[in-house]
Write a structure and sequence with these properties.
Strand content: 35-45%
CATH architecture: 2-Layer Sandwich
CATH topology: Alpha-Beta Plaits
Radius of gyration: 17 Å
Shape: globular
CATH class: Alpha Beta
Helix content: 25-40%
Number of helices: 7
Length: about 240
């Protein structure tokens, strides 16, 4: 199964067009038989869970259907084929071009994970562990219980500030469907081992994980690891993965 994460940044004063696109883009996606799951999302300002939205930056997540013809379209997808991409509706590209948007596209292969998104195992049935050890993308998403919002937001800011300085960290994005309530982070690390060192050896992060389980912060959550197949375009003027694939 192949997924695509597209991050789009609108020129100054045109963030309203990004907000409008979250409604307009739904119709083409509803009728696209090649896309089995999709999400249109906003972005936080600081690259992780964030209470403050960045009105210029928006995200689209697409997951390819499992129809044989579509699967064949990706049979050769690999880091050496950077032009491989999901069948994104042409209307999207025309919209972004019209508004002069900057665009960064990641082609991803889900390899490990657990949990659901809107009750769906949207990336298919994945093993919890594999022997993959290379550069890795991590999606962590959750629907936060209303009565746990205070505890959640009180604890995540400190972890976010430490992640940026962690060994092996490349970049991260804060994305979400509903401000405050439905949040996600997508981060990229040089290796799986460096990611695990941060996740389980950094005291503050380990404490947040413990509190999450003990206090039952989430009504639904998901954790998925991805192999990164390709990176195209830029975000804030640079490709964060340039020279790394």
């Amino acid at each position: 199964m192949i997924s695509q994460l597209i991050i789009v940044r609108y020129p100054k004063w045109l963030g309203w067009a990004g907000f409008l696109s979250m409604a307009v883009f739904r119709l083409p996606l509803l009728f696209n038989k090649q896309i089995r799951f999709w999400k249109l999302m906003g972005c936080g300002r600081n690259g992780t869970f964030d209470k403050t939205p960045d009105w210029r930056q928006w995200a689209v997540l697409l997951v390819c259907s499992e129809e044989p013809g579509v699967r064949g379209h990706f049979s050769s997808a690999s880091p050496s084929t950077p032009n491989s991409q999901l069948p994104t509706p042409d209307f999207f590209s025309s919209w972004w071009k019209f508004f002069g948007c900057e665009k960064w596209e990641l082609l991803l292969e889900p390899i490990e994970g657990h949990g659901t998104w809107d009750g769906q195992a949207c990336f298919g049935e994945l093993p919890k562990q594999t022997d993959y050890a290379g550069m890795i993308g991590i999606l962590t998403r959750a629907t936060i219980r209303v009565n746990k919002l205070g505890s959640f937001w009180k604890n995540v800011d400190g972890v976010a500030s430490q992640m940026a300085g962690a060994d092996g960290f490349i970049t991260s994005l804060g994305i979400g469907e509903v401000p405050w309530l439905k949040q996600a982070t997508f981060s990229i690390w040089e290796s799986r081992e460096q990611m695990k060192q941060f996740a389980y050896q950094m005291k503050q992060h380990a404490e947040v994980i413990r509190k999450t389980r003990k206090e039952n912060w989430y009504s639904e959550d998901m954790f998925v690891r991805f192999r990164i197949l390709s990176s195209q375009g830029t975000l804030n003027g640079t490709d964060p993965l340039q020279g790394k694939l």
